[in-house]
Amino acid sequence: MKDNVKESVKSILTNYLELSNHRKTPERFAILDAVYSIDGHFTLEELGERLREDYHFPVSRATLYNTLRLFMELRLVIRHRFQGCTKYEACYDNSSHCHQICTTCGKITEFKSLEIEKVISGMRLERFRKDGFSLYIYGICSSCQAKLTRQRNNRQKVKSQKNI
Predict the structure, then answer these.
(1) Rounded Cα gap, residues 90 and 92, in angstroms
(2) What is the pTM of this model?
(3) How far apart are CA 18 and CA 133, in angstroms?
(4) What are φ and ψ of residue 154, in 5° steps?
(5) What's the pLDDT score for residue 1?
(6) Which helix (H) or strand (E) holds 4?
(7) pLDDT band for position 158 (50/70/90)?
(8) Coil, strand, or helix at residue 161?
């Protein structure tokens, strides 16, 4: 499955570059392969590090940025602006999904919801064609909730010991 997706996105990029008379540079194809080898979200820095370490293919920040911008235009990559950071994600085979974002630790968890997909696909939007969606739900993850509860309990315990 993953190899089929990689071949499909490589074909989309190749066709676009040929039709628009752009150069088919090894950087573009290495970046595309790296993007579709990463599971989930990644930052520009993480992508650059992956290219250096795993591919032995160092690429400048400007090249990464410009190439990701091209991939976004081709709808091969989506950009997410989460709390205080920008992350990217391969989206060719995953154009509709939801994110849970912890406002305490910043952890991002993806999930699919057939109910939400059904509601959105049934929506009739005026003069607009839907291609996909991303939903962001902000809250506090169970790990942070447990940590906050422990801290609150410890404070109450110390307070009650002082009153004794």
Answers:
(1) 6
(2) 0.78
(3) 30
(4) -65, -40
(5) 46
(6) helix 2-19
(7) confident
(8) helix
